[in-house]
Amino acid sequence: MRYPLVIFDFDGTLADSFPFFLQAQREIARRHGFEPIADERVEQMRYLKTREIMREVKCPPWKLPLVAADFVRAMQAAPPVPLFPGIAEALAQLRAGGVRMAILTSNSVENVRRVLGQELAGAFELYDGGAHMLGKHRRLARMLDKARVPAGQAIYIGDQIADF
Fold it and tell me: How many CB atoms lie within 10 A of CB 161?
């Protein structure tokens, strides 16, 4: 099936930001007084929902907005994370094929554009950054409305259970 609108998550889907995330999580955990993710738990925790991860690291829910903001600031200060191999070419092919593309992310739009670069960033019609880490349902609905595309004619591509 061909979808006229493809909406992508960014971190972990287009960009290989997991090594950065892990390093930043450990630093932010110390700063905010919750547990860093231990090396032996990394693989297990990749499959947990955001609330489950927060419980595992003993981070109270009220700290999530502070922690998310710290992640965004840390990424702004760090060198750009790399795109996964082949992503730039795949996005260029989609665009050349007439597919409309958008990005919905919990990261900032500025960070996303910096990683994509000017040319690749221009391939996306819509951006929505700062989406809630506990779910993106409302932002997806708003993006579909803005694009004037019914939900059945769009696909969202993400890498985590929390993306859906």
Answer: 13
Closest to 28 measured CA to CA, from 68, 77, 83, 55: 68
What's the gap between Cα 36 and its chain centre? 20
Q: Is the backbone of residue 12 left (phi > 0), alpha (psi -120 to 50) or beta?
A: left
Residues 6+ apart with CB under 8 A from 151: 141, 144
- 0.70 cut: is pTM over it? yes
Q: Give SS3 for 124.
A: coil
- Dihedral of CA atoms 129, 135, 136, 139 in degrees, nearest 10, equals -90
Region 79-85 average pLDDT: 94
**pLDDT surpassing 70 at residue 162:** no
C-alpha to C-alpha distance for 87 and 14, rounded to whole angstroms:
6
